[in-house]
Design goal:
Strand order of the largest sheet: 3-6-7
Strand content: 5-15%
CATH topology: Glycosyltransferase
Largest sheet: 3 strands, antiparallel
Number of strands: 9
Distance between the termini: 23 Å
Structural class: mainly alpha
Number of helices: 12
Number of domains: 1
CATH class: Mainly Alpha
Order of helices and strands: HHHHEEHHEHHEEEEHEEHHH
Helix content: 40-55%
Length: 366
């Protein structure tokens, strides 16, 4: 199939996936298990992860879908405990009840980024959600104590065994990037010196996460702890959160290590020794994540290397043509071709759109 035609078909499928995941009450779920195309063996993803929804909101605007304000309204009114505690937890059922209650601070940062992106042409319009912005930013700011969060935190991959420790003051580097950027952007909408102060402190800890011995940023580092496992989420330090310059030698070395250790046969894996497969067993090991291939594509587009951007982008297109996914982009792609996992995943489709926006923006004409 002609590449441009395949991309255009995927764009149309993506619009439908976004619509299918946008519920009447404003909730944006990760995947709609109610629909006939959803695999029967896949784990149920009919839940709201605010982070996933934030990326979907940014991508949806690029294809002309207006699902953002209904979601922002849902976010302000629905999540259990949010109005009282000002914190977003792991995920929610569509009516707002907490499903899993691990504290993932990056979600609030991502939502602030999504709000800013939607209103950036006229930030005064964002004041429609002043209460939401203030609650998200205050929640992060109030929970931050100089060099760590008061609560135990879990990062975007939500591995239960990888919680931060309030004893050793360690942090997930990706989470800090999201939170620091979110507070910075919130301040542009509603000036607040405390948010700026906390954002700067978080950025200091991100710089602290660069390890001279390893020659790269670590995915988690504290005063007395360090996690040496290579993790693709560190791409977030450049895009979308722009914490580290794209040409920073420290980051170039980090990217090199990611490519050496967890890009396998062209597919990008989450982190070393990842066992999650989306089908409930994990015994065979995790697959490559298309959203990370697209994330890498965006990174190389930002650095000006179109050839590498297309290489990571095309890997997913080729896999979709080879297998039964057709125009649905899954959570993971497995080399054994025996497992299917979750598809379509709204976040995968969102990262596809963000990659297209960098490589082929003319195809996204609304």
């Amino acid at each position: 199939m002609d590449k441009k035609i395949q991309i255009q078909k995927l764009i149309e499928t993506t619009k439908q996936v976004f619509k299918d995941c946008s519920l009447p009450n404003g909730a944006i779920i990760a995947a709609n298990a109610d629909l006939p195309y959803y695999p029967k063996r896949a784990a149920d993803y009919r839940f709201v992860w605010p982070r996933d929804a934030a990326f979907v909101c940014v991508a949806a605007e690029k294809v002309g879908l207006k699902i953002q304000e209904p979601f922002f309204t849902w976010l302000e009114d629905r999540p259990e405990r949010f109005k009282k505690e000002k914190l977003l937890f792991q995920n929610y059922v569509p009516n707002g009840k907490t499903r899993w209650s691990a504290f993932q601070p990056d979600q609030a940062g991502a939502c602030l980024w999504a709000i800013y992106e939607y209103y950036k042409k006229d930030l005064s319009k964002a004041l429609k959600f002043e209460k939401l912005i203030t609650r998200l930013a205050d929640g992060l700011s109030n929970d931050w104590n100089n060099d760590h969060f008061f609560h135990h935190t879990v990062d975007l991959w939500e591995e239960s065994g990888r919680r931060t420790s309030t004893v050793y003051s360690n942090n997930h580097t990706y989470s800090l990037a999201s939170c620091a950027k979110g507070l910075e952007l919130a301040n542009k909408i509603i000036p607040n010196k405390e948010w700026v102060k906390k954002s700067k402190e978080m950025k200091e800890r991100i710089n602290f996460a660069y390890d001279q011995r390893a020659g790269r940023f670590l995915r988690n580092k504290g005063n007395e702890t360090a996690d040496w496992n290579v993790d693709a989420s560190l791409l977030g330090l450049v895009y979308p959160f722009e914490i580290v310059p794209k040409d920073d030698p420290r980051f170039i070395n980090t990217v090199k290590k990611i490519e050496e250790e967890i890009v396998i046969l062209g597919g990008v894996h989450r982190f070393e020794n990842d066992m999650y497969d989306g089908e409930g067993s994990g015994n065979e090991g995790g697959g490559a994540w298309p959203l990370l291939n697209f994330w890498f594509s965006v990174y190389w587009s930002v650095t000006g290397d179109k050839e590498k951007a297309e290489e990571y982008f095309d890997w997913v297109l080729c896999k979709l043509e080879e297998d039964e996914y057709n125009n649905f982009i899954p959570e993971q792609i497995f080399e054994d071709n025996l497992r299917r996992g979750v598809y379509p995943l709204a976040w995968s489709h969102a990262m596809f759109i963000l990659a297209v926006d960098k490589l082929y923006p003319e195809l996204l004409k609304k």
